[in-house]
Design goal:
DUF2639; 2 helices; DUF2639 domain-containing protein
């Protein structure tokens, strides 16, 4: 049985960002896991939903 993270949870957001090549916060350069879900959702909206790539 495969354990899946619930859609929209912090774990899911981290997973989606990493799938799109974002492993650290684009400005502060800290690991994604250290941020709260609301910050991660903002990054998800900005970079994944809109198709941007964080450099």
């Amino acid at each position: 049985m495969i354990a899946m993270t619930p859609v929209g949870s912090k774990g899911w957001l981290v997973e989606q960002l990493k799938k799109n090549g974002i492993y650290r916060h684009p400005v502060e350069r800290k690991k994604l896991e250290t941020y709260k879900a609301v910050i991660l959702y903002g990054l998800y909206e900005k970079y994944v939903k809109k198709g941007r790539i964080a450099q």
